[in-house]
Structure prediction request, 301 residues.
Amino acid sequence: MSYFDNLKTFIRVFELGSMSAAARDQRISPAVASSRISQLEERLGVRLFQRTTRKLGPTEQGRIFYDGAQRVLDAVEEAESAVNSITGEPRGTIYVAAPLGLGRRFIAPQVPVFKAQYAQINIRLRLSDRKLDLTAEGLDIAFFLGTPEDSTLRLRKIADCPRLLCAAPSYLAQRGTPQALSELTDGTHDCLNLRYPGAPEFQWPLETPEGVRRVPVTGPYESDDGDVLTSWALEGHGIILKPRFEVAEHLASGALVPVLENTPPLPVQLGALYSHRRGQDPKTRLFTDFIAEKISVGIAG
Prediction:
């Protein structure tokens, strides 16, 4: 068991605040993670974490050691990147996250294509519509739709994605076609909403002749999976706000039809987030460039 592996495990325990979470992240057993921390503590002659039955937190020595350990790993990664840039053969593992709809339709299909070109790079793709913490979850890149809140991260904009409101013909036949924005707020129509822990209240930003209006919408259905909302809309349960690319096939077939086209939703930004340190990694830049080139035209169309 190498000292380098011990450092990596220590850093993830520190960042996640949990031995078991760090073990899952490192793909090792909790016993191995605990053993690695114990080896470090024995080598240093100090306790790095205070352990109780309910929580685990770093000691003062642990906080000091974290800063140094992180610098060591950064230096090793920079050295590896420098060597790879000379040999012309980038290698390593990239941990990538993306929203479900975007990831399933555009990013996941491109991963094997990327791998065929760069055989020494492995991609670990995680798809979720919930908000992710890049540091806590050990991610290199997080593709997103929307406006990121964390100003400490580096942002790369890829495209603006047109959005629309739409519903199934069966729903409109039963409930009528909305003619005014007030019908989204007064209970006349049901709106299908994306909800995840920490999500803001439901407000749809719509363009009106008077400017952008943030409309508080209501409805009995909500989910943390955007594709579930699409399924509900197809079954006739309500109106959804979606990036056009996510529902293009259903619009083409007539299974969904646009509504309130005179007051469309604002476009949503597609971008990539990564820490400033991760953004300097050649393989990270390579994958981001690859995805941006492959999907920006299709996303924006």
The two ends are 51 Å apart (CA to CA). The first helix runs from residue 3 to 16.
